[in-house]
Amino acid sequence: MKIRDFLLIDLIIGLLTSFKHFYRKKFTIPYPYKKPKPAPRFRGFFYLNPSTCIGCGICWKACPIDIIYIKTHDEQTPEGKRKKVVDRFDIDVQRCMFCGLCESSCPNGTFKLTLKTGFYEGAVYDRKEIYFDMYKLQNWVKEKKEKKNG
Ligand code: SF4
Ligand code: SF4
Q1: What is the domain range of residue 43?
Q2: What CATH number should be reported for the domain holding residue 133?
Q3: d(CA 28, ligand 2 centre) in Å
Q4: What mean pLDDT is predicted for residues 125-133?
Q5: Cα(17) to centroid of ligand 1, in Å?
Q6: Residue 9 belongs to some domain of the structure
Q7: CB under 8 Å, gap of 24 or more: what pairs does 138-144 form?
Q8: Among 29, 40, 61, CA closest to 114
Q9: Which of 43, 66, 68 has the most ligand 1 atoms within 8 A of CB, as the residue to mutate?
Q10: Within a domain: residue 50?
Q11: CA 70, 138, 68 angle in degrees (round to 5)?
């Protein structure tokens, strides 16, 4: 038997390492009791305010996998100007890779179409649930947050 083994040197070194880390700041979070706050640039689930979308279709063109579906019609404003009205705005989120190209290409800025909702708890039992139409784009994250917070 080596003297190192006899004096339990390795065990003492191991215990000292454990004690050294015992009072250090913890990096793990007891999810779901505590929830990590995402970084400001984190891409979570979508939010769109359809009333402020101008229906330009730039996000649809920017999407590399063609999962945005937009349908618009033209209307005349009281001032006699032509205005696009959005009839359909769907995103097939189940296929989305959260690249953010749609958001960054939106000329109306992040308040129109955004992934910066900070929401990441999007687990569902049915994949079809994460096909977002205009209503879901506006309300899904809010409803999910309310449900999770009880
Ligand atoms: S984030 Fe999703 S919807 Fe937007 S451009 Fe990328 S793949 Fe398309
Ligand atoms: S790019 Fe922005 S404003 Fe244009 S259709 Fe998409 S969400 Fe609406």
Answers
A1: 37-149
A2: 3.30.70.3270
A3: 39
A4: 91
A5: 46
A6: no
A7: 138/47, 138/48, 138/49, 138/50, 140/45, 140/46, 141/44, 141/45, 141/46, 141/47, 141/117, 144/45, 144/119
A8: 40
A9: 68
A10: yes
A11: 25
What integer best gives the mean pLDDT of the chain? 88
Considering its fold, how many domains does the chain have in total? 1
Would 65 be classed as within a structural domain?
yes
Does residue 32 have a cis bond before it (omega within 30 degrees)? yes
pLDDT above 90 covers a percentage of the chain that reads 44
Closest ligand to residue 62's CA: 1
Instruction: Kindly report, residue by residue over 69-120, the tens digit of the pLDDT.
Output: 999 999 998 888 898 999 999 999 999 999 999 999 998 765 578 888 888 8
- Give the model's pLDDT for residue 95: 94
Closest-CA residue, ligand 1 atom 5, reads 63
The answer to the question of residue 26 being in a domain is no
